[in-house]
Amino acid sequence: MKVQDKVKNLFQVDKIILMIFILLSAFGLVMIYSASSYFSLTSVGNSEYFLIRQFAFVVAGIAMAIGIANNGKKFFFNERLLQIVYGILIFLLLFVFTQSGIKGAKSWINLRFFNLQPSEFAKVILIWASAFYYQKFKDSRDWKQLYMYPMGMLVLVSILVLMQPDFGTFMITVLMMWLLALTTGFSKRAIQYSGVAFVIGYLFTYLPISIIQYLPFKAYQVGRFLSFHNPWDDTSGVGYQSIQGFLALARGGLTGTGLSSSIQKTGFLPEAHTDFILAIVGEELGFIIVWLVLVVLFFLILYIFWKAQFCRSLFSRYLCLGVGIFLLVQSGVNIGALLGLAPITGVPLPFLSYGGSSFIVSSIAIGMVLFALKYDKEYQEEVKNYIRMNEFKLEEEKEISQEEQAEEVNVQLIEEEDEHEEITGG
Fold first, then answer.
1. Of 1, 83, 158, 174, which has the highest C-beta tally within 10 A?
2. pTM of structure
3. Are 17 and 244 in contact (CB under 8 A)?
4. How far, CA to CA in Å, does 23 sit from each of 175, 284, 379?
5. Is residue 110 within a helix (H) or strand (E), and if so which, with residue range?
6. Burial, 288: exposed, middle or buried (Cβ in 10 Å; 0-12, 13-18, 19+)?
7. Three-class SS of residue 48?
8. Are residues 311 and 376 in contact, defined by beta-carbon separation less than 8 angstroms?
9. Can you state the angle between helices 167-182 and 143-163, rounded to 10 degrees?
10. What is the pLDDT of residues 36-53, one digit of tens each?
């Protein structure tokens, strides 16, 4: 095969998903540079520091997505490899406790060139595990056998993530896995209970502090849970970040103040280039661009869900559903925190926020979807060929059967003629 043909074959994936992924990543680079330039200049003396690092992550992420899309068949169906990867994940989640914490949490491993966050990779590994075991036990009538491996793996990961503590990742991972489990359709009653559980969980945030303070949460976590309902109760404390985000959106209005002209990023809004990058988009480019970005992002998510329903391979379907749910939940929590509808838990916005681990994980997720759709086409072709072969065999058997019947009729006629000649005497 020629080099040109090999390169062309690499991009034989879903073009819509790939182009939206690249488009959002490129837009994210622009906004990360704009949102981080002041902070990086004052902190490290180089306004392009975060831009250069994120550019490296984007290039690596796109390469990984395309690589997974074209080579996933070599490892996604290997149960032994899945177990080894999960074992490495658990080791890394334990190893983080030997590291010095960042902002009160031991969630990262310092690799010098960037900080690795193992809990982020747990999301895509658990999606892989769920798709594998839901497909493997698809005919099981025992719910324990169906959910034993995915939920067992989730429990161990969740305990280690909570111990860091990283409540944002814990919340997203548990919600993602629960919603993915519901898509198996094993129990309709579970769907009803899930709605009730969600309402109770949300009402939990309205409990008075006199009750919440006795729960096993740190003081800043309790403050985040209580402040998002009314951040103005503590304008200089736990409500400060939310208020600064509101001010950024209000200052931008419909059309924004202009690219790179944000005031909030100059020391007023914490995490402007990470968790609250959408606030800077609103301030500099306005509500119209924010709306357009969200339309593109949620179109990508809905498109993944739409493609999932046409997958004949159960593995491909659950892989697409898992990634779609992951992107939906993480985007929803990030946007909800900005709008005051959810607590601030340090969750990045997929493809737009700065962060090596977060972007690489989002890229792997896109690669998983691209592989799932590519594999499903091959799977459907195999099914069609199998059906054609069976139809051809049936036709052959039918023809043989008809020939045998004709021969039997001829033999019977000859026998009848012979009997007639014997009776009539020739």
1. 158
2. 0.86
3. no
4. 28, 19, 30
5. strand 109-110
6. middle
7. coil
8. yes
9. 170
10. 988 888 888 888 999 999
